[in-house]
From TrEMBL:
EC code(s) of this entry: 4.1.1.15
Protein name: Glutamate decarboxylase
Pfam families to which the protein is assigned, alphabetical: Pyridoxal_deC (PF00282)
Keywords on record: Decarboxylase, Lyase, Pyridoxal phosphate
InterPro entries: Glutamate_decarboxylase, PyrdxlP-dep_de-COase, PyrdxlP-dep_Trfase, PyrdxlP-dep_Trfase_major
SUPFAM superfamilies on file: PLP-dependent transferases (SSF53383)
Reaction catalysis annotation: L-glutamate + H(+) = 4-aminobutanoate + CO2
Species assigned in the record: Streptomyces camponoticapitis
Obligatory cofactor(s): pyridoxal 5'-phosphate
């Protein structure tokens, strides 16, 4: 009989006196050989999915061998210890200034920014700066600071709901619809008031990959400013698109070219092409980050400003980001992102011609697209069944409902990242066709017990 509370040790390491099983939930009393400990963990993680076949996640799963070498040389660096690792601290500053230039800041070297653990922390910092600026302005005017609110799409990533919950801000969700598939400025004036600390615009909606038209959102807020005097800023949640648009859609106006855009966040570990554990946030000018949120630490005999939720955190990913900036350059980033977009458009076209599906979007923004089942196609199977069939081949392609007002619509989504080659994409498309053929041949409905939405990052 197998005990679920223990882990079996591979017999390869069954040496005299060595334990054959290990308790999962208590630290062993005695030490074990490093080879044994390694083998236990190694064998357990073999049960994880193949990250290269994970089309659910936006997070990067591949870097080249030189990046891996650099990673192994620097994974012991603590990003917060700027006295001990001044060069890493200096490189961090170079990186956010490179991003500021990429995003058309008026004076890139005069911007304020920071690295973070991921874009979720970066979003939290952007929202916190909004709240503090609003509070300072309200107090200066002798007004109440009791009821701040933040306006965003109902298709927002969960980090913004967390921000509002953790920092006592009322979230105001503008619902998406068939006509308005993302936040596009429509009816925005109905959601803002004197307590609005800012509006979040998403450059690559998590659910579908679509860009929200920041220029239209800014124009709607300009009209509000003209009519009411309310001057409401925008934060760009560019988790994915902020490292796509500068290369693939350089003429798209979404960034610091719009004065209403105060801050931009991005995931270095998504289309920034770095391993997990890195985000960035940049303010168009240093005055937009309230001074009382900044802490200063000793650095090279001077003071180094720091603004982050985490204290000790890895410095290696910052160095990997700088490596990628040097390694790729603008031409390299264009080539990598264009290759991903080409694969996404290929897959979208192949899926779009199948009678079973209607495309929600086609991957022409970020290399992400979604589709739904054609109305009336069948009652025998759903996109959840297709997701299950694809898992049999190792593919992770999530299915999930859209947010409120469209929660009756289920979509499936593919995220194309660096590492999904055109050959792999052809295999994925073949497997989708095969799965659809199997499901269409069913003479009765698939069992639906235990079906749950796939996790969408």
């Amino acid at each position: 009989m197998v005990d679920d509370g223990v882990v079996a040790v591979n017999p390869l390491f069954a040496r005299p006196g060595e334990a054959r099983v290990v308790d999962k939930y208590r630290m062993p009393t005695e030490s074990m050989l490093p080879e044994t400990a390694y083998q236990i963990v190694h064998d357990e993680i073999m049960l994880d999915g193949n990250s290269r076949l994970n089309q659910a996640t936006f997070v990067g799963t591949w870097m080249d061998s030189y990046a891996s070498k650099l990673y192994s040389e620097s994974f012991d660096k603590n990003m917060i210890d700027k006295d001990e690792y001044p060069q890493t601290a200096d490189i961090e500053g170079r990186c956010w200034k490179i991003l500021a230039e990429l995003w058309h800041a008026p004076e890139p070297t005069a911007t304020m920014g920071t690295s973070t653990i991921g874009s979720s922390e970066a979003c939290m910092l952007g929202g916190l700066a909004f709240k503090r600026r609003w509070q300072l302005a309200r107090r200066a005017a002798g007004k109440s600071t009791d009821r701040p609110n933040l306006v965003m799409t109902s298709a927002v990533q969960v980090v913004w709901e967390k921000f509002c919950n953790y920092w006592d801000v009322e979230p105001r969700f503008v619902p998406i619809s068939e006509e308005h598939k993302c936040l596009d400025g429509h009816d925005l004036s109905s959601y803002v008031d004197e307590n609005t600390i800012g509006v979040v615009a998403i450059l690559g909606v998590t659910y579908t990959g679509m860009y929200e038209p920041v220029d239209k959102i800014a124009a709607a807020l300009d009209a509000v400013h003209h009519d009411t005097g309310l001057d409401i800023p925008i934060h760009i949640d560019g988790a994915s698109g902020a490292m796509i648009a500068p290369f693939l859609q350089p003429d798209l106006v979404w960034d610091f070219r719009l004065e209403r855009v105060h801050s931009i966040s991005v995931s270095g570990h998504k289309y920034g092409l770095v391993y997990p554990g890195l985000g960035w946030v940049v303010w168009r000018s240093s005055d937009l980050l309230p001074e009382d949120l900044i802490f200063r630490v000793s650095y090279l005999g001077g003071a180094m400003p720091t603004f982050a939720l985490n204290f000790s955190r890895p410095g290696a990913q910052v160095l990997l980001q700088y490596y990628q900036f040097l390694r790729q350059g603008k031409a390299g980033y264009y080539s990598v992102q264009k290759a991903s977009q080409d694969v996404a458009r290929f897959l979208a076209q192949g899926i779009g011609v199948l009678d079973a599906f209607d495309l929600w979007n086609d991957g022409s923004d970020i290399p992400v697209f979604a589709w739904r089942q054609t109305a009336g196609h069948t009652e025998n199977w759903s996109l959840y069944d297709l997701s299950d069939r694809l898992r049999l081949k190792g593919w992770q392609v999530p299915a999930y409902p859209l947010p409120d007002n469209l929660s009756n619509v289920t979509v499936q989504r593919i995220v194309v990242r660096n590492g999904l080659s055109m050959d792999l994409a052809r295999s994925l498309l073949d497997d989708i066709r095969e799965a659809v053929g199997f499901l269409d041949r069913l003479r009765g409905p698939m069992p639906s017990e235990g079906q749950t939405p796939g996790f969408h990052h």
